[in-house]
Amino acid sequence: MYAKYIKQEISDLNGTGHTQAYYKMQLTPKSYQEFVSQCAREGHMEESMIQGVLSLVSKKLALNMAEGFSVKIDGIGTFHAKLGVRDDLLQDAFEEGEATHNAKSIRVTGVSYRADPDLIDMTSRKCVLERGGISRLRKSKLTLEQRIQKAHDFLGKNMFMRVPDYVRLTGLSRTSATKELRQLALNPSSGITSRGSHSQKYYVLRDAF
Questions:
Q1: CA angle 96, 102, 107 (to 5 degrees)
Q2: What is the C-alpha to C-alpha distance for residues 200 and 67, in angstroms, rounded to an integer?
Q3: Residue pair 113/140 in contact by the 8 Å Cβ criterion
Q4: CA 44 to CA 36: how far, in whole Å?
Q5: What is the mean pLDDT of the chain?
Q6: In sequence order, what E strands does the chain have?
Q7: CB 10 within 8 A of CB 137
C-alpha cells in the first residue's frame, strides 16, 4: 500500500520574502481494533492476548512515568512525563524571593516521546510514497495590528477565544492562526494571554486576570 505525501506552503521563516515548503504524510486513521487484529493475524495469536499485553504495557508505562522513570522500549522509543503548572495558576518567576508553587500546584501535562532510531529506519525502509496533493497558504488581508484589534474586539464581547474563532476573524489558516496566537500570548504588549493546554487551550485578555 502506498502512502501519500502533501506539499504544504508555509510562511517565510528566514526573512527572504518567499514562502517555503515542507512535506507531510497524508494520514489515514487506523482504529485500535484494526491494529490489534492485524497484530494477531501476523503473529498467529489471539486478539485477546494482544489486547491484554497492550493494556498491561499502557498501565505499567503510566505507573513508571508517574514515579519519575524514563522508560525505553526497544524498537519503539523512550517515554517520560512532562510537568507544568496547573491551568488556573500563573507561571513561576525564577528570580530569588519570587513566589513559588508547591507540589500540589504542579501536574503532569503531557508525555514526551523520542522514537527509537530502529523504528524510524524500519518505517523509512517500508514506506513507498506517492504524491497526494498541495496545500497552499491562506493569507490574511489584514495587517498584524488589525488582526490583534479584531481579537480584542471579540474578547471584549466574549469571555474567551479559541483558534477557530481567530481563523474566522482574520482569514488565516489554522496553522498560521495557532502559531500567531502562541506568539501573541508570549508577548505582554499584545494584551492577550492563554489558558489551558493542548486541545483545551483558549485565549483571554490579559487585563481580565
A1: 120
A2: 26
A3: no
A4: 12
A5: 87
A6: 3-10, 20-26, 71-73, 77-85, 106-115, 129-135, 192-195, 202-205
A7: yes
Summary count for the chain: helices (H), strands (E): 6, 8
Q: Does pLDDT of 21 surpass 70?
A: yes
**More confidently predicted of 142 and 67:** 67
Q: Which ranges in 26-134 belong to alpha helices (H)?
A: 32-43, 47-66, 117-126
Find cell 482569514 and name the residue: 171
- Angle, in degrees to the nearest 10, between helices 174-186 and 144-157: 80
> Which triple of cell numbers denotes residue 64?
513508571
Lowest mean per-residue pLDDT among 44-48, 85-89, 114-118, 195-199: 85-89
The pTM of the full predicted model, rounded to 2 decimals, is 0.60
Walk across the sheet containing 106-115 and list its strands: 71-73, 77-85, 106-115
What is the Cβ-side half-sphere exposure of residue 57, based on CA atoms within 13 angstroms?
Answer: 11
Q: Are strands 106-115 and 3-10 parallel, antiparallel or unpaired?
A: unpaired
HSE-CB for 54 with a 13 A CA cutoff: 13
pLDDT mean over 154-171:
94
Give the three-state DSSP class for 157: helix
Closest CA to 166 of 194, 189, 186, 187: 194
Cell of 100: 513559588
pLDDT band at residue 8 under the 50/70/90 scheme? confident
